[in-house]
Amino acid sequence: MSDIYDLVVIGGGPGGYVAAIRAAQLGQKVACVDKRETLGGTCLNVGCIPSKALLQSSHHLEMAKHDMAAHGVKTGRVTADLPTMMGRKDEVIHGLTQGIAFLFKKNKIDHFCGLGTIVASDTVAVSGDDGSKKELKTEHILIATGSESATLPGLDIDEKYIVTSTGALSLPKIPKKLVVIGAGVIGLELGSVWRRLGSEVTVVEYLDAILPGMDGEVRKRSKLLFAKQGLNFRLSTKVTGATVSNKKVMLSVEPVGEGDAEIINADVVLVAVGRLPCTQNLGLENVGVKLDEKGFVVVDGDFQTNVPGIFAIGDVIGGMMLAHKAEEEGVCLAEKLVGQKGHINYKAIPGVVYTHPEIAAVGRSEEGLKRDAIPYKVGKFPFGANARAKAMGDIDGFVKILAHKENDQILGAHIIGPGAGDLIAEIVLAMESDISAEDIARTCHSHPSLGEAVKEAALAVDKRAIHM
Q1: Does residue 3 have a pLDDT over 80?
Q2: Per the domain annotation, does 153 fall within a domain?
Q3: Alpha-carbon distance 409 to 320, whole Å?
Q4: Whether 219 and 125 share a structural domain
Q5: 266 and 377 fall within a common domain
Q6: Annotated active-site positions, please?
Q7: Is residue 468 part of a domain?
Q8: CA dist 74 to 46, 62, 79, 183, 417, Å?
């Protein structure tokens, strides 16, 4: 057996591979174990990246069909070429996974393909698909195994007719009727993809609003815009079961309150009701790693489990189940392991919905501030009054900044509109740096730019927006 590792990471997703690279940069001897041959985890292989590739391709189709004529571009009849679109998605994935493999070689990280199991607090066993067995000795173990799609009672996932996000990213043909269960980020993004490609899409949601947890004003505006685009919503509706017959799905639903049960027929049903931590078959019981009542690994402020030397980050510990949150935790842990003061501010982690228009948020919502009786001011600016958005022909939405009424500290921000996922970064940096809304308002922004909408919203906090 080779030398003892300083760190063995179980899981090659955004949290795991970033932790491995940062630890290696800091001089640690690192190994990473993952079941997939390609690194990048769910996010890169069957999640964030392929969904964004399809969102981009389907957005081009939508623009060619409905928007380009207004710009003086006549395209004639436009149709979707699904095999080419899927092929491009696969090329994007391949290029990025190969990029991570290159970074592992560059940083001298050993990559083991197989199931990683914790045998002892200093030992990880690797079982390959080819029957090979290997034991890795290590000073520290990091659990970064991420999450998997949740389902509902009465639904048997076959990734053909009743699918998770994994199956929805690789459908062989465009379904005539698609039902999406869950009006969260994944459901709305993938629902948008297939709606653009020609599916009749119905979104079934147990709650009475879409995008639970987001700012109420954003949720209302986005629902109106998505409905205008052609998404059908069935809110306050409970799914009770499904059967597959003659290549069709019969989905049983009923109102959350009073009302009659009914059947919704579909070609494909996408189950997008959240995600669960991947903690099975890791050998956690061998060493007594503690889980909470929901199955997440319990850690302290340093990502240490109850077993000395074993740590966990990312989706497997709960919180915001986002790739970039896992990445920040991975860097933070790697730095702490060598005695540095790793840093992560959970109040300044953005979330983005890559629909059109994009939706982005960071920090507190207006409803949350009201609930906690925190005094605040609101600054809001519409993209309809932004010169760059007007020139682009993309004016739906607004920027909304929430600041403390007494000290002008930025408490949260919510953007729905063009480039929201990029624009939110300025506000995240402001929150991370603890600067005020006035500081953004006094910062020069290039003209014409979408970023000016952020400046104007900051000006609007003190009721002095220039262009509104």
Answers
A1: no
A2: no
A3: 23
A4: no
A5: no
A6: 447
A7: no
A8: 35, 14, 14, 35, 25
Question: Kindly report the CA angle at 344 between 423 and 350, in degrees rounded to 5?
Answer: 25
Classify residue 155: in a domain, yes or no: no
- Do residues 362 and 348 lie in contact, with contact meaning Cβ atoms separated by under 8 Å? yes
Average pLDDT along the chain: 97
Residue 428 located in a structural domain? yes
DSSP state of 298: P
What are 219-255's pLDDT values in tens digits?
A: 999 999 999 999 999 999 999 999 999 999 999 999 9
Q: How many CA atoms lie within 13 Å of 137's alpha carbon, on the beta-carbon side? A: 4
Q: pLDDT of 37-87, one tens digit each? A: 999 999 999 999 999 999 999 999 999 999 999 999 998 999 999 999 999
Final residue belonging to a domain, choices 273, 299, 321: 273
The answer to whether residues 102 and 115 belong to one domain is yes
Same domain, 121 and 26: yes
49: Cα separation from own chain's centroid = 10
> Structural domain of residue 231, as residue ranges?
162-273
Give the separation between CA 414 and CA 422, rounded to whole angstroms: 12
Mean pLDDT of 162-177: 98
